[in-house]
Amino acid sequence: MFKNCRTWGMALVATGVNAVAPALRALRIPAKEIHVLRPGFWHRYELSELNPREWEALCDGCGLCCLLKFWTEDDEIAYTNVHCRLLDCSTCRCRHYPARKKIVPDCIKLTPGSVREHAPNMPSSCAYRLRLEGKPLHDWHHLVSGSRETVDKAGVSIKNRGICETTIAPDRLAEHTIETP
Ligand code: SF4
Ligand code: SF4
Q1: What is the pLDDT confidence band of residue 134, given thresholds at 50, 70 and 90?
Q2: Which tens digits make up the pLDDT trace of 38-78?
Q3: pLDDT higher for 32 or 97?
Q4: Which residues surround ligand 1 with Cβ inside 6 Å?
Q5: Can you list the alpha helix ranges (DSSP code H) found in the chain?
Q6: How many Å apart are CA 124 and CA 67, to the nearest integer?
Q7: Atom 4, ligand 1: which residue's CA is nearest?
Q8: What spacing in Å lies between the alpha carbon of 30 and ligand 1's midpoint?
Q9: CA 95 to ligand 1 center in whole angstroms
Q10: pTM value?
Q11: Ligand 2 centroid – CA 64 distance (Å)
Q12: Per-domain residue ranges for the chain?
C-alpha cells in the first residue's frame, strides 16, 4: 500500500493504495458466484473470501489513500491534502487505474495478501481496515447507504478538496499537513 520516498526526499513517505481483486485461484467460493455481489457480503464474509467484484465494491471511494503522507519525527504518519498526480480529484478516481503501477511504480496495490501488512497505515475510515479489524462499515459507506454520494456528504472523501502534487514544490509538502483522517 505505502509508497516509498517517491518524490519527497529521504525523510518523507508518499502514500497511495488501491484495491486489487484477489486472485481467483485463492478464492473458495462457487464459480457461479465469482462475479456477483452476494447479499451483505461486506459483513458476512472475511476479506479473503470476497470475490473480485466484491473486493472492488468494498472500496468507499474516499480517495484518502491517494494523498501524500510523510513520517514525522515522532514516527507517526502525517497526512497532507496533496494527492497523487493520477487522481482525478473531482471524482476521487484514478485516471489510469489498470496501468497505475506502470505510471506510478510506487503505488501500492491493496490485496487480500497485503491488507494485513498495510492496514495499520490506512486511514481509520478505510473499509478494508475496518473489516480487517472486525468492525462494521460506517453508515455513509455506499454499501450501507445505497448511494455513492454519502461518502462526500459525510465529509470523508477528498472530492474537490485536494491539491495535485504537480502544483507544489517538494519542500513545501509539510505546509499542507491535515488532521489525520
Ligand atoms: S496511481 Fe492511482 S491509485 Fe495509485 S496513488 Fe495514484 S491516483 Fe491513487
Ligand atoms: S476505502 Fe478509501 S482509503 Fe480505503 S482503499 Fe478505498 S479509497 Fe482508499
Answers
A1: very high
A2: 999 999 999 999 999 999 999 999 999 999 998 888 888 89
A3: 97
A4: 16, 18, 66, 84, 86-87, 94, 100, 104, 107
A5: 41-44, 52-58, 100-103, 115-118, 127-132, 142-145, 150-153
A6: 14
A7: 107
A8: 32
A9: 8
A10: 0.84
A11: 6
A12: 17-167
